From TrEMBL:
PROSITE patterns in the cross-refs: HTH_CROC1 (PS50943)
InterPro entries: Cro/C1-type_HTH, HTH_RamB, IrrE_HExxH, Lambda_DNA-bd_dom_sf, ScfR_C, TransReg_Diox_bact_type
Claim: DNA-binding is one of the keywords in the record: yes
Keyword Flavoprotein: no
Organism of origin: Nocardia rhizosphaerihabitans
Protein name, entry field: Transcriptional regulator
Family: Belongs to the short-chain fatty acyl-CoA assimilation regulator (ScfR) family.
HTH cro/C1-type domain ranges (all copies): 10-64
PANTHER family for the chain: HTH-TYPE TRANSCRIPTIONAL REGULATOR (PTHR46797), HTH-TYPE TRANSCRIPTIONAL REGULATOR SUTR (PTHR46797:SF23)
Keywords: DNA-binding, Transcription, Transcription regulation
Residue stretches spanning the membrane: none
Length: 480
């Protein structure tokens, strides 16, 4: 077994639990000097100590694994990829920074996000775009909200428990939840629910709440599951506004515009947790081997809703498979991205064209699977399928998306989608990357951009088989 030095992670765990070194030593039954040596990487973590840590603090299986920090390392790669003068900083140096001073690494990522936001604002002003609401030095609001959930591994325990309690307290049941929530709103909050017929030329919003008239109006085009989600979202604002405000206020550096958007995101999280209550949904997912179609039928919700909920199942002692959830359009723009894993796609240079999510558009409505390998050797099982958000009518605008759901290959056998796949054959994995601009694969024929900071070979006497041949492969003129 390779020796594991994880002093920074152990120190972070101790500080998160509010323990001194002597307190940690007492809890684990170790000497203070031994804990001190572990934290300073003077001694490796042994299997016995790992087992004690996992049992005492209910850690997930990857807490001390090297790939646990993959998302932070990928964020650092994005930071340095944006600066052409930083090409000399190696991944090994970034890994050393992340391991030894993770707090400084996270601060660097945060500062970079603010710089990117300020740069985007400056570009808007330079282009003469009026009415920009981006505050100086901040990221875009949707990026702020995405980072909030991303940093929490897409699990908000306060809202998960509150939603499950409301479900149980009011004796709700799976099936016909839109009607049950309509009755609950009327009986407990004196709010009526009406259905609005859609205008073919202007479908209108999905939900409108009139606080003076105490009336919620829903669009007729919504399915029963979608109506239940909208009513559950309104219930979140009515019954758990305090919890939502507390969570929002916990991010002191977030600007006002982003905070309002975060409140909606948290209410939506509550809604998903209410119509798919944690214990019932997680147990059903395990029993059905994470068959999304069967779960959709059982809980009367759509494919995307089930996939999004699967990416949130990280409650201590009741964890599900840690998934990465993503939604993309035909052009490859990622509009939703949530993760309970270390998987990460770059914010620069787009997503990998070899990724199965892009292939889903060639077979609408059919689930595609892929065993994919990242440049660092980590392997994932991915599944993808198209979905659409359309309004009735032949001439109505259509919105097509591909939904992707992935997990570490170590969990593949728990999923029905691994059936018939060569998950133990290392030669069948498709080599993908985090994004062309930071991908380290020199032989990829699908590369759309050269790797940032890496010189390419320019030779008028040679026609290479791959685009952007690295200069250090065969020598020749170097063009940074």
């Amino acid at each position: 077994m390779q020796k594991m030095y994880a002093g920074a992670r152990l120190r972070t765990l101790r500080e998160q639990r509010g323990l001194s070194q002597s307190g940690m030593a007492k809890v684990l039954g170790l000497s203070v000097s031994y804990v001190n040596q572990l934290e300073n990487d003077q001694r490796p973590l042994t299997v016995q100590v790992l087992l004690r840590l996992n049992a005492t603090f209910d850690l997930d299986m990857g807490f001390f694994a090297a790939d646990t920090d993959a998302r932070l390392l990928a964020d650092l790669q994005d930071v340095f990829a944006d600066d052409p003068d930083a090409y000399s900083v190696t991944n090994a140096e970034l890994d050393d920074l992340m391991t030894r001073v993770p707090g400084a690494a996270r601060l660097l990522v945060s500062l970079h996000r603010r710089l990117r936001g300020a740069t985007e604002q400056l570009e808007q002003f330079s282009a003469g775009i009026e009415g920009s609401t981006v505050e100086p030095g901040t990221a875009m609001p949707y990026e702020d909200v995405r980072d909030f959930f991303y940093d929490r591994r897409n699990h908000i325990p306060e809202l998960d428990h509150a939603a499950e309690h409301l479900f149980t307290q009011n004796r709700l049941s799976i099936g016909g939840l839109d009607l049950q929530l309509t009755r609950l709103l009327h009986e407990r909050h004196d709010i009526t629910v009406t259905i609005r017929s859609d205008n073919p030329t202007d479908p209108g919003p999905k939900r409108v709440y009139d606080p003076q008239a105490r009336r919620i109006t829903l669009a007729r085009r919504l399915s029963p599951g979608q109506r239940a989600f909208q009513l559950a979202t309104q219930l979140a604002f009515l019954t758990h506004a305090g919890t939502i405000d507390t969570l929002t206020a916990s991010v002191e550096t977030m600007p006002a515009g982003s905070r309002e958007l975060l409140r909606i995101g948290l209410a939506n999280y509550f809604a998903g947790a209410l119509i798919l209550p944690y214990t019932r949904f997680r147990d059903a997912a395990e029993a059905l081997h994470y068959d999304i179609d069967l779960l959709s039928s059982m809980f009367e919700v759509g494919f995307e809703t089930v996939c999004h909920r699967l990416s949130t199942l990280q409650r201590p002692n009741q964890r599900g498979v840690p998934f990465f959830f993503v939604r993309t359009d035909r052009a490859g723009n990622i509009s939703k991205r949530q993760s309970a894993t270390a998987f990460h796609f770059s914010r620069v240079g787009g997503s990998c064209p070899l990724w199965v999510v892009h292939e889903a558009f060639t077979t609408p409505g059919r689930i595609r699977t892929q065993i994919a390998e990242m440049p660092d050797g980590r392997k994932y099982l991915w599944l993808a399928r198209t979905t659409d958000e359309s309004t009735p009518g032949y001439l109505s605008p259509k919105r097509d998306f591909a939904i992707g759901l992935g997990c570490d290959l170590a969990y593949a056998e728990k999923l029905v989608y691994s059936h018939g796949l060569p998950i133990h054959d290392e030669t069948t994995a498709v080599p993908i990357g985090a994004g062309c601009k930071i991908c380290e694969r020199p032989d990829c024929a699908q590369r759309a951009f050269p790797q940032l900071g890496r010189a390419i070979r320019v030779d008028q006497n040679r026609a290479a088989n791959i685009p952007y041949t690295p200069a250090d492969r065969e020598g020749g003129p170097r063009t940074p």
